[in-house]
Amino acid sequence: MSEEDIEIDTDDLSRRMEGAMGALKTEFASLRTGRASANMLEPVMVEAYGSKTPINQVGTVNVPEPRMVTINVWDKSLVGAVEKAIMNSGLGINPQTNGTIVMLPIPELNEERRTELARVAAQYAEHARVAVRNVRRDGMDQIKKAKAAGMSEDDQKLWETEVQELTDSFIKQVDGALENKQAEIMQV
Questions:
Q1: What is the pLDDT of residues 91-109, one digit of tens each?
Q2: Per-residue pLDDT tens over the stretch 31-50
Q3: Which domains can be identified in the chain, with CATH numbers?
Q4: In order along the chain (188 residues), what is the average pLDDT of each group of 10 residues?
Q5: pLDDT, the chain, mean
Q6: Cα(125)–Cα(42) distance, integer angstroms
């Protein structure tokens, strides 16, 4: 195997770091900011037909007004399970039921709840940073293996720099996303 054959797949590393960003965006979308959003229910799983099912697969989620989310549950027997899933989700919303429609009035956020949500957002961001760093570590391990397989010292340094720059750019994206989300949460 000659030196030119040794390639580190930075596209794969980038794709995996992008996955961590995608997961972070999904988690951020689930955090309430005082406005109703169908995304806030994405992480909620309902015990339906013997398995955990996303809420949008047991009913239609709508946002009829800025402070209200409704779920039109398709199967009347699942209304109780949907209510229970929402109450146990940690969203801090008490569902109200009218037949097969579960209504979620979104209360005003108080200062304490805003601070708590900002803390949760910071935890989500830290998970994303850890995921990005784990991908970086995998990349560095690939480089070490390639060096053992005959990669030159110069190439090794070049690849390490590239992987580090990729990591830094994603960490910066995570930090930027966190800053925006915390500003959104704290906005009254």
A1: 778 899 999 899 988 877 7
A2: 766 677 777 788 788 988 88
A3: 9-28+110-186 (1.10.132.20), 36-105 (3.30.1360.40)
A4: 62 93 85 73 86 90 88 92 86 86 85 85 93 95 91 91 95 95 83
A5: 87
A6: 18
Does the pTM surpass 0.85? The reply is no
- The three-state DSSP-derived secondary structure of the chain is CCHHHCCCCHHHHHHHHHHHHHHHHHHHHHCCCCCCCHHHHCCCEEEECCEEEEHHHCEEEEEEECCEEEEEECCHHHHHHHHHHHHCCCCCCCCEEECCEEEEECCCCCHHHHHHHHHHHHHHHHHHHHHHHHHHHHHHHHHHHHHHCCCCHHHHHHHHHHHHHHHHHHHHHHHHHHHHHHHHHHCC
